[in-house]
Specification:
single chain, mainly alpha, two-stranded antiparallel ribbon, 5 helices, 67% helix, elongated
Length: 103
């Protein structure tokens, strides 16, 4: 193998390795102030968005190409970070729904 071929193969491997990294969407933090002026319907919609985000994370983990095409503003290369963030958001939304008597 010539030096040029070896260099080209090394460069190709590095380029594809960087593209192969999964990027998981990160849910933003939910605070009580985030939902204090929202109706029960709007809080339910926010919870549904969280569940869709959770499904997108699982889709990316299982190799779903469609999920990778939908780039969020914030992302993590660690699935556990994305899972933790979306679970915290869903728990906070559920607490807000209970506080407002929506459940």
């Amino acid at each position: 193998m010539t030096k040029l071929t070896a260099s080209f193969l090394a460069l190709a491997c590095l380029a594809t390795a960087g593209c192969a990294t999964n990027r998981y969407p990160m849910a933003l933090t939910w605070s009580p102030a985030s939902g204090e002026n929202l109706t029960c319907t709007q809080l339910s919609d926010a919870a549904e968005d969280g569940h869709r985000l959770q499904a997108q994370i699982e889709g990316i983990a299982s190799g779903d190409a469609k999920g990778r095409a939908e780039r969020p503003r914030l992302y993590s290369t660690e699935k556990s970070d994305a899972d933790r963030a979306v679970q915290a958001r869903l728990a906070a939304i559920q607490a807000q729904r209970q506080t407002q008597g929506c459940v």
